[in-house]
Amino acid sequence: MNIEIVSCVPYNDQKPGTSGLRKSVKQFQKPDYLQTFVQAIFNTLPEREGSTLILGGDGRYFNREAIQVILRMAAANGIGKILVGKGGILSTPAASHLIRKHQALGGIILSASHNPGGPDGDFGIKFNTSNGGPAPESFTEAIYENSKTLEEYRITPIKPVPLDKVGVYDLYSMHIEVVDSVADYMALMEEIFDFDKISQLLRSEHFSMRFDAMHAVTGPYAHTILEERLGAPQGTVMHGLPLANFGGGHPDPNQAHAKELMALLYSPKNIAFGAASDGDGDRNMILGNHFFVTPSDSLAILAANAHLVPGYQQGIAGIARSMPTSQAPDRVAARLGIPAFETPTGWKFFGNLLDAGRITLCGEESFGTSSNHIREKDGLWAVLFWLNLLAVKQESVASIVRQHWAEYGRNYYSRHDYEAIPTASANTLMEHLRQQFDKLPGQMLHGKQVKAADDFMYVDPVDGSTSAQQGIRILFTDDSRLIFRLSGTGTQGATLRVYLEQYESDPAKHDQDPQLALADLINIANDLAKIPEFTGRINADVIT
Ligand code: G6P
Ligand code: ZN
To answer: Which listed ligand is nearest to 496 at the C-alpha?
Structure first.
């Protein structure tokens, strides 16, 4: 085989964040930047010789070029077989499924998730291990360490592989299969959900829905599954054509960025159900008519009703949520008599619990929900889960949520983001909060008493590994919580996230505007963290 060994100068900034290495496209276009990171991944995989890998991305700008480079490097690094999604496209959940289905050594997923794309946008690359989930920190740290001293990479000088049709190719000793990006994923969904019932609902004249693919990777999945297979009318899927720059939009399914979908669901058009997914298809937003379901409530409701879905009929083993996610799912777990786990932010922390069979469902406030069917969060899965519930219950989204609140109480919840603030100011703000830990317990603030104040530390119950400083928690005696965290996925400066949660058991008080219901906590957050003083911002940039 003709292998080129190319000398390169190591970079020192290839430290993966919450979800892989995420940088501006411009950074990735620096000489050998992509190659260095990819070689570091291969170097961290001693068992790579002859192994199988899955490869695909969310279709953003630089996706195709990167795929060709990775194929050439994989051949030169002894990989035996690579399955690549047609057109270089694989949603993150579909990639996770393929890794598991083919018992691959892992997968390389090209995505910067919900970050904007295009030549001035972001790009990202992450490695998922053989369980289909994001690589654990020990692995990403090893990649980072390797990248810092890497002085050469291996590549084969082959012609680009045609990616636009399904087919097989042999590159030296490596076998490449270009596979249909949707088929296997759809088959998995069909095993879990009652497609006949959902299809009846979607074909009914009395029901209409919109799914916003935000010009990102779920377009082809949603067209095939919702419209072609399940019979939803054409036009159900909005922005279904994946574009390299996501049509100039911000492919993040929340109230701020899915504006057109929000406007439709809050219009007189009487659309019963709305949903959206992000750049790489792992996030979801769920809407009813004139109604927004918080991701935390969504997880709690899916868990409480899981027995109505064929794939979870036998019951669920446990539920996990990330620490800043509201405690609504814990109440369901308590009622079901199953364990509830609280993990740091980042999907990788659910992997061990899922592998050990300790949980079946998991989710995060950041619009991520999933189950043990794969090891990633799964946007379309959540949409199909809701559709399955709507088909069984024959009730509106709003009434399902209201009944849930009536039964369990409502955890009012909101997140306020302050984006692109100088990193030094953000760190000072966090330090300023830490300095108050000792004196806060017992204090009365805006009528609430502080129970505890600390940095969240996680001890993985399966392997005993610990993760410190995973967000600052101010806990109150009435179960309210105020959480401060710096984002691990931003690419410019720091993003401060303030998470606000307050429990209300009285159904007569379940119809308030969350921002009003949380007003005291918002004031406490400002007082304790001196947000305007440290960040120069009076208002949050994004409120979800
Ligand atoms: C990615 C990860 C999630 C995580 C989210 C928020 O989407 O896959 O697991 O919750 O980022 O991360 P951040 O650090 O920006 O709050
Ligand atoms: Zn994503």
So the answer is: 1
